[in-house]
Amino acid sequence: MATTEAAAGLVTKLPARLVRFFARYPPQYYSARALGIPSSAEELEVPTDRPSPYTPSRDAKAPKPDPKAHSPSLALLQTDPEYPNPFLPFKNPETGRWRGSAISLRTQNDLVKIANKNGVEELLPPGRKATVFKEVRSLEKGLRIKGTGVGQKVKGHKWERMLDVKLDVRKKAMMEMPDMIRTWKQRGHGRGWKKYPK
């Protein structure tokens, strides 16, 4: 009885858009928790030691990724045939035809933002806009961005690459400045302004 009252109290605090979504797609059938999907990226074992797709020379060919390899991020996107996930495309078992997701990606993003703000994101169905999916995807695909691998760095602008050299030259010039002033004065250049006749 207490859980029913707590659930009723939670429903009154949620925005109307989420209440309508949960009325149409009840969390006990559609949520990630009901499908047995982990609710955080720490619970999944994401391999981060993948080889870099970039090669050290231009002549060498980059290794092609294996399309059949297990992907933790895609493993999050599950659906139950009895209760198809409204966030994912679904193949009809009778006709064999695919139908698009019932809810667009923009609406999914809005629902995830609202649910995250209210602390009930784990009650939503798993989808591409979920926070867990984005975290796992960034961990999984981290080495695909050039410069993020071990021993790599981003090329950057020319002024960023030359900044260390420029600062070293400037530091050396500042250290030699007292000697330069002393030699300037010894040659007679620092005795004041010459007065020219009118």
TrEMBL record:
One of its GO terms (cellular component) is mitochondrial large ribosomal subunit. Pfam families: Mitoc_mL59. Signal peptide: none annotated. Residues 40-81 are annotated as: Disordered. One of its GO terms (molecular function) is structural constituent of ribosome. InterPro entries: Ribosomal_mL59, Ribosomal_mL59_dom. Residues 58-69 have a biased composition (Basic and acidic residues). Residues 17-186 form the Large ribosomal subunit protein mL59 domain. This is Large ribosomal subunit protein mL59 domain-containing protein. It comes from Polytolypa hystricis (strain UAMH7299).
